[in-house]
Amino acid sequence: MHWSYSGGRPGDMCNRAPVGIENSVRRFELGHCAQLGVAAGDDGTAVDLRVSVAMLVGLFAVVACGSPGPVSPTRPSAGHASSAVGISVRLGRDWPTYHAEPTRAGLLPDGPDPSGPTVAWHTPLDGAVYASPLVVGGRLLAATEAGSLYALDAGTGAVLWRAHLADPVPGSALPCGDIDPVGITGTPVYDPTSGEVFAVALGAGVVHTLFGVDVANGRIAQQRVADAPGSEPGTQLQRGALLLSRGMIYIPYGGNYGDCGQYLGRVVAAPTAGIGPLLDFAVPTTREGGIWAPPGPTALMNGDLLVTTGNGEAVNGEWDHSDSALRLSADLRLRDGFAPVGWAQENSEDADLGSTGPVLLPDGHQLLVAGKGGGIYLLNIDALGGVGGQRAQLTGCESYGGATVRPGPGSTAQAYLPCQSGLLQVLIGPDQLTRGWQAPGTITGSPILVGHTVWSAQPDGTLDALDAADGHLRATLNIGAVSRFATPAASGTALFLPTLDGITAVAIAPKIR
After folding, report:
1. What are the beta bridge partners of residue 336?
2. DSSP category for residue 347
3. Predicted confidence (pLDDT) per residue in 359-412, tens digit
4. Nearest-angstrom CA–CA distance, 357 and 101
5. Half-sphere exposure of residue 292: CA atoms within 13 angstroms, side-chain side
6. Is residue 343 within a helix (H) or strand (E), and if so which, with residue range?
7. What would you report as the CA-atom Rg of the chain, rounded to the nearest whole angstrom?
């Protein structure tokens, strides 16, 4: 099953009720605003962003009218971001992929803990942003369901360029689903070798196309169809984040809400150079088995990939590698897998393991997986174990989205899982799992970890900051309504949030000047 929940309280998901995208989005009422100035460094070190004396009042909409062709970017002649008065933030390292790294750790260890977090700016874009934003060289990269890719000044929120990749497909043109329209849903990835950001857009003819866009100027450098032969593009949603590994872009596919059609969970791989054949892996089941979790595939040091799969059609008989954690080679051959003992029963209940991405632990040898069935499983990466092959197990976490993890003393680690009953800390040792603290049931969003603080955004627009050690609430802030799986990005002292109408930047530890 593929969830693409877009609004309401997190508890709505427990009832599995279909929810359509909200028709109206609450906007910020920020009076007395100032536009930020940027002093950028050339060596990748931190960048100071200081406030100018120019004052803005209210919230201005970015002008992104019309439907420019998919061959060149547009540069809006007007449009301003709103920003709070006197805020200074500091950018640090880049955040070039979902959760910053191919391991999907979601960790910024040298970031600050919150000290009066404040909205620094909010920039409306031409559609809802479901994908996690990226930070590359002082630019904030954002993809919209209107089929556009934007580069914003990460300090001010000003639009640097907009590349309209494809006109989105209206929900009425698809056999099922609850995103309307569908443009770019999966998180893009940046390739430092080519200087291109890669994104997949659904466009005319209901075709998924992989685009490579020059980060410097928004020029479309390459594009190619990214649907596997024999697939049904209209029944597949490209929600999972793209992965860059060893010169290849890996693209995961799941199903639309409703699981219509004869789709199979897939991973398609395309060379970053833009030439050469596509590679394709399809889950060896008769139907479904979507690879749809927002983090997408996780990369191992040797080039292998880890993915989790959704429920399949089989409810008895031989294990079909649905409801599983799978290890794939770089050329997309199935190497190994794991499934819970009750995989067939979970299939019958739409309780798949594929609702949360695989969590690679810092020791490089252990893997944590959790899903809609409520189980949390610790696996040995080098021997996933097949059916019932877990090394340790916990229960009571119906999990959706992406988790974050950090190393602990010795060979231990702490993971933070987005459970529907509240964000959960899990303490991990060799072949051992222990429950830690758990947040209230209103805090369920996919977290990242900055310094000693876990940050989680809720669909109602609340951003929560929790102490990583004991879970107490350090701060809360209104950032605007977000999608069910919205995941922040971070750099230096700033967080960047994808919202249902654009991007919001939060100064974690602002300095008033």
Report:
1. 327
2. H
3. 999 999 999 999 999 999 999 999 999 999 999 999 999 999 999 999 998 889
4. 14
5. 31
6. helix 343-348
7. 21
Cα separation, 337 vs 380, whole angstroms:
11
CA distance 130 to 133: 9
The model's pTM is 0.85
Nearest to 80 by CA among 160, 161, 159: 159
* Strand segments (E) across 60-124: 73-74, 82-83, 87-91, 107-108, 118-124
Bridge partners (DSSP) listed for residue 287 = none
Give per-residue burial for 46-66: e unless 16+ CB within 10 Å, then b.
ebbbebeeeebeebbbbbbee
Q: In sequence order, which residues have a C-beta less than 8 Å from that of residue 414 and are 6 or more positions away?
A: 405, 406, 408, 425, 426, 427, 428, 436, 468
Which amino acid is present at 232? E
Task: Residue count of the chain, please give it.
Answer: 513
Q: pLDDT digits over 18-57, tens only?
A: 222 222 222 222 222 222 223 333 233 333 333 332 223 2
Match 């010169």 to its residue by tokens: 247
Burial of 222 (0-12, 13-18, 19+ CB in 10 A): middle
CB-based contact 401:320 (threshold 8 Å): no
**Burial letters 320-357, b for 16+ CB under 10 A, else e:** bbbbbbbbbebebeeebbbbbebbbebbeebbbbbbbb
